[in-house]
Design goal:
By secondary structure, the chain is an alpha+beta fold. It is built from 7 helices and 14 strands. The chain has a 6-stranded antiparallel beta sheet, with no helix packed on it. Strands 6, 7, 8, 9 and 10 form a 5-stranded antiparallel beta sheet that branches. Strands 2-3-4 form a 3-stranded antiparallel beta sheet, with no helix packed on it.
Length: 273
């Protein structure tokens, strides 16, 4: 099967009852992956890259699938996407104000997630639980609902002074994971940061809501984790190996691991051997 890659998607109807079911979109057609775990696959990559922003051909991919022009002009590629606390839509300087209205000036969730240890993160409320699945989290707990992306970033900065805001991909693909008490971690952070959090809630009345939510547990279809965190690069040569599992946006092979999201916009051919 050949087509332009998009990040893997998951059938969320089975959440909580079974392993997540993964699909690899190729030119909009879903290639079902779960039934091929335990089977050998070949992935080859052509020189064709299609920008996910404008749809034009590109010699190089930036920011997971964009051409250089889109990288420098689209709001989705601005620095505030990586650092939401510097969102500048309210200043009138957003690259695309209408995009900002629908993506940044809407409710966001601040959460704790456990993929390789507890981390703090933020996402649009509409992206739950997709964001946690993309990160390969085994547990996730929403702790704040806020009015805008910028507010979620300000809270994340406060909490990140006491807890990581990164996922260690090498540990993720090797299965270095243990359940943790996210509720207790939430209470610990609230105690440590109460002065800063109270100040933000006073500055932005009615826009920050602490949550008392349940922890969501997520199970991934993995027969065997990677023995070594070796990144595979289909643009440098054909990738072949037995698919041993899927976690986050990683395909796990007996020969290494492949970060699908990194290749958004690339043309792949996927063959079951």
């Amino acid at each position: 099967m050949r087509g332009t890659v998009r990040k893997m998607r998951v059938d969320q109807q089975a959440l909580g009852s079974a392993d997540l079911r993964y699909f690899l979109p190729l030119d909009g057609i879903d290639f079902s992956l779960n039934e091929h775990i335990g089977q050998p696959l070949r992935i080859s990559c052509s020189e064709r890259i299609t920008c996910v922003g404008c749809g034009k051909s590109s010699n190089k991919s930036f920011h997971q699938g964009y051409c250089y022009r889109c990288l420098t002009t689209l709001a989705a590629c601005d620095m505030c996407i990586m650092k939401p606390e510097i969102c500048h839509h309210h200043l009138g300087t957003c690259r695309e104000p209408s995009w900002g209205e629908t993506h940044c000036m809407i409710p966001h969730i601040v959460y704790l997630a456990n993929s390789t240890g507890v981390k703090v993160g933020i996402t649009r409320e509409t992206q739950i639980p997709t964001r946690w699945i993309d990160q390969g989290a085994g547990q996730a707990l929403p702790i704040f609902r806020v009015a805008t992306r910028r507010l979620s970033g300000l809270i994340e900065v406060v909490l990140a002074a006491h807890i990581s805001d990164k996922t260690k991909w090498q540990a993720l693909v090797k299965g270095d994971y243990a359940d943790m008490d996210l509720v207790a971690e939430r209470e610990r952070l609230f105690d440590l940061c109460h002065a800063e959090l109270d100040a933000l809630m006073a500055e932005y009345p009615g826009q920050i809501e602490p949550l008392e939510a349940d922890v969501l547990a997520l199970d991934y279809p993995v027969q065997q984790f990677a023995l070594k965190a070796k990144s595979l690069a289909p643009e440098k040569g054909v990738v072949e190996g037995v698919l041993t599992g899927i976690k986050g946006q990683y395909l796990l092979f007996d020969t290494g691991v492949l970060n699908v999201r990194k290749y958004t916009g690339y043309e792949w051919e996927v063959t079951v051997l």
